[in-house]
Amino acid sequence: MTELLYPVPAQAKQNSHLTPELYEEMYQESINDPDTFWQKQSSILNWAHQPTKIKNTSYDKNNVDIRWFEDGELNVSYNCIDRHLKTQAQQTAIIWEGDDPSKDKHISYQELHDQVCQLANGLKKLGVSKGDRVAIYMPMVAEAAYAMLACARIGAVHSIIFAGFSPNAIADRINNCEAKVLITADEGRRGGKTVPLKSNVDQALTGNRCKTIERTIVLRNTGSDINWHSQDVCWQELIQDCTSICEPEIMQAEDPLFILYTSGSTGVPKGVVHTSGGYLVYAAMTHKYVFDYQPNEIYWCAADVGWITGHSYMVYGPLANGATTLLFEGIPNYPDINRVAQIVDKHQVNILYTAPTVIRSLMAHGTKPIQDTERTSLRQLGSVGEPINPEAWHWYYEVMGNKNCTIVDTWWQTETGGIMMTPLPSVTELKPGAASKPFFGIQPALLNQDGEELSDEAEGNLVIKASWPGQARTIYADHSRFIDTYFSAYENVYFTGDGCRRDQDDYYWITGRVDDVLNVSGHRLGTAEIESCLVAHPAIAEAAVVGFPHDIKGQGIYVFVTPIDGQVTNSELTKQINTWVRQEISPIATPDLIQWTQALPKTRSGKIMRRILRKIAANEHEQLGDISTLAEPSSVQTLIAGRLNKA
Ligand code: ATP
Ligand code: MG
Questions:
Q1: I need a surface site. Which of 79, 303, 432, 580 has the fewest CB within 10 A?
Q2: How many CB atoms lie within 10 A of CB 639?
Q3: Secondary structure element (H or E) that encloses residue 564, with its range
Q4: Which residues are annotated binding-site positions for CoA?
């Protein structure tokens, strides 16, 4: 695996929030004296009542209890909007870029305030109050952000359901969190296609399936004909006579802000609960330092609002910092493969934050994705969601970033609320593919199977030894599942479920999920390393590696690969790839079986679902488990049909 070091570029040091010395000093304080450190950092927000109790957390599995800033009081929407009005009311808060490239909108902080207050008053009119749950099933329009902030304003708890989900998935989530109101739109637009949101909602609610829903607010978005039912109320009509004044509800720091269901790469979705004070402190701080955000910069997080990245780094973090955040309705390759780069040029984006799956899908087209664009506004690039293969890192760095930008490869989870490990632009020398170093307050450790902590250079299960403010507090209505999942494998630490390696320079490398680790003839192999090696081969676009039962080795290596555009696949190429892995990594890592496919099964957020591939490889496709979060369930049948080793 490449460990090339890229020095911190001179431009990244100018005006930056941090220097290497300051990072070190702050990091030490955050670990040695968390109370003092976080008390100081809490001033990144405006509190109605300043917290005096800072950290009160227990990882004891008989009593997992996590509280931060517990006597503090604040309102999240006030912090994301009102406090900026004095000096930047006319500054753009949200740039909305439509699926159709001719459509866009700039929403100022003042306008955001007015829209959010009107909807908040509308929600009140429907009887929504503090603590009630509101489900949001919206396309990527500015109103999705208004809906989140309107809930926060009145103390309602939102739960966003990704707009790609099916009626069953919607119903399951609504019922789990017992939402009182559902906010949706007639239709959404994505990649030139319409998404029938209201019709999906009708199916989800049919036959009294979701008993807790009293009203459904429907935004007229495309304006097309939909069925209206007695419980439906049109968003535009609802807010017509609502004023744009709505006093923010003062909330306790530990009052819940939202519930979000994880993407489901590893099983039945969990309703992760985040609270108000700690979450917002952490989202704002990480956004400020990890992207080294400077006033007036244009910041684009190309995630969907339905994922945690959309919550923390498209809405809450940037708005808390008074940033201009870009919200893109469409997909990276519509209408053209260079859409991402076009948007960067059009809005003069300074910071771009996206996922390896997007980078790999663009990379498969060489330099076409940057055709006729300059991207000179870009200063900073970010990646999140999966390990970024060095090959994809280099493409991102050289092609998209013109070799001018630093890349922050940010490792974190829905459950962590914000970024946990990452390079920092003005501080960290870059190693392509490494999540690098812990953020303030984060104490990573590597444990072996027996729970013993490994020192120095090592590879093991990644745990976090102490709480941080952005940490999830529970799984909604199932605290025991929260404890089982994160606090029972090992004593007194948070178990991430990810494998990780620490190198000689104390850089951390995520090796993949612990469940995905292979054991081949007694050798433990991470999926990330083999996949990176495969993707580095010029014929391969994407790769997924899983284990399957093997009489001699215990586990064999089963590889699923998609070819680069236009590549002809044959047995000669398959042989070449075998040799390639053998040479690049080791004979132990040589694939036993290589199956070519046009598509891999992915979650809606673009992550490969190895859980399903494992079942296919093991010929257990009768028991695929929950596939409700798959982007294209049909890809599974094709994979099963093409399965190798049919004997
Ligand atoms: P579920 O928990 O429901 O199975 P999920 O883990 O995919 O779904 P997320 O919380 O969105 O849901 O993703 C977090 C996981 O994504 C991490 O645990 C890690 O495996 C992976 N990940 C995220 N960012 C990175 C990164 N920069 N490098 C490596 N892996 C990453
Ligand atoms: Mg997870």
A1: 580
A2: 21
A3: none
A4: 190-193, 309, 333, 521, 582
